[in-house]
Amino acid sequence: MGKTADLTTVQKMTIDTLKKEGKTQKVIAKEVGCSQSSVSKHINREAKGRKRCGRKECTSKRDKRALERIVKQNRFKNVGEIHKEWTVAGVSASRSTTHRRMQDMGFSCRIPRVKPLLNKRQRQKRLAWAQDKKDWTAAEWSKVMFSDESKFCISFGNQGPRVWRKTGEAQNPRCLKSSVKFPQSVMVWGAMSSTAVGPLCFLRSRVNAAVYQEVLEHFMLPAADQLYGGDDFIFQHDLAPAHSAKSTSTWFKDHGIPLLDWPANSPDLNPIENLWGIVKRKMRDARPNNAEELKATIKATWALITPEECNRLVDSMPRRIAAAIQAKGAATKY
């Protein structure tokens, strides 16, 4: 960044468009993601009608179209694999040239968004559920205690293959990675309301109905007292086998706790999923050496969650519902 030559074709076009709209160079630099001097040099060069000096490009427009087709066929390939296919197609270019042409087209190498894999029946049920809840207000959602389990690892570095995509393509189905239930392991159970978080429970064994009911007894009930006092609340959990077991349903009936009906495979509708993401982002710089240090780090980070963060996430429920309806039950950006 800082050199006009470093600007991609997309960035230059964006600068020209924003300049025509009357935006200042400072605003343009911020929106484009480059230095203000780069913006200034590009604008001055265009004004003077000067063209970039240097050797003529070794690739034609036809070559570039072939490259874009190769990238779009499988966006999870690395530069080396894409370069090899481009060469086989009859283009004589180096690996670095291949990379530059991809950048000129607006492709960037990014970690893919993860969305749940939904079948047609699940999408229909999600849509029906969203339509049923579309008139719920933020005040009504504030009466819901959201809960979930999440897996924490000592290392957060292994995030899988990256994907080539352009600006605005984050939600493109070809740029998404489908998520499925992760294998059972030692996980953390937690709960939240619109005002605060409850105590964490570290699960030491596979979560069956009996284990889950122990969690409810020793962690959910104290969390309810802490978050709601003597006020009524509705409990939310997903449709994991331990949650939907008959004995678990009986436990809730015996304790007089109403349950929020919940569509299957819908983590994007649950605000606590975003809360887990906040905790994990805050822990990125932590380097625990063992499980005990990891637990201590999780506890300390969980304790730093503010009421404002909880309120903002629960207040997003009407928007999540609207997004699910607009997507006709498909997974949403949340």
Automatic annotation (TrEMBL):
Show the InterPro entries listed in the entry. Homeodomain-like_sf, RNaseH_sf, Tc1-like_DDE_dom, Transpos_IS630-like, Transposase_5, Transposase_Tc1-like, WH-like_DNA-bd_sf
Enumerate the GO terms in the molecular function aspect.
Answer: DNA binding
**What biological processes does GO assign it?**
DNA integration; DNA transposition
Look up the signal peptide feature and give its range: none
Q: Which Pfam families match?
A: DDE_3, HTH_Tnp_Tc3_2
Q: Which SUPFAM superfamilies match?
A: Homeodomain-like (SSF46689)
Provide the Transposase Tc1-like domain boundaries: 64-132
Gene3D superfamilies the UniProt entry points to: Ribonuclease H-like superfamily/Ribonuclease H, Winged helix-like DNA-binding domain superfamily/Winged helix DNA-binding domain
Task: Tell me which domain of life the UniProt entry assigns to the organism this sequence originates from.
Answer: Eukaryota
Ranges of residues in domain Tc1-like transposase DDE: 144-295
Question: NCBIfam families per the record?
Answer: transpos_IS630
Write the protein's name: Transposase
Taxonomy of the source species: Eukaryota, Metazoa, Chordata, Craniata, Vertebrata
